[in-house]
Amino acid sequence: MTTTKFQLEPLTCPSCIKKIESKLGKMDGVEEAKVLFHSSKVKATYNEENVSKEKIQETIEKLGYPVLK
Hints:
This protein is an alpha+beta fold. The protein has a single domain (2-62), classed as Alpha-Beta Plaits, CATH 3.30.70.100. The protein has 2 helices and 3 strands. It has helices at 15-25, 53-62; strands at residues 2-7, 30-36, 41-46. A 3-stranded antiparallel sheet has the order 1-3-2, covered by helices on one side. Strand 2 and strand 3 (41-46) form a beta hairpin. The termini are far apart.
C-alpha cells in the first residue's frame, strides 16, 4: 500500500468532501480516501498494482477539483 496527498484549490463546502471521498472510495485499489476540508488536502491510500497516483489525480480533477502542482 502507498499513501499520498494531493493539494487542492480551497474547498468551499463540506459536500465537496463527501463527493471526493465517495468517488475515490469506489475506485478499484483505493483502500482509503480522506479529505481534510480546512487544508484542502486529499490523503489517499492505495494499491499501486490496481491504480496509479495519476489515475487518482485525474479522477479528482474530473470531479471539478483542480490539483495544485
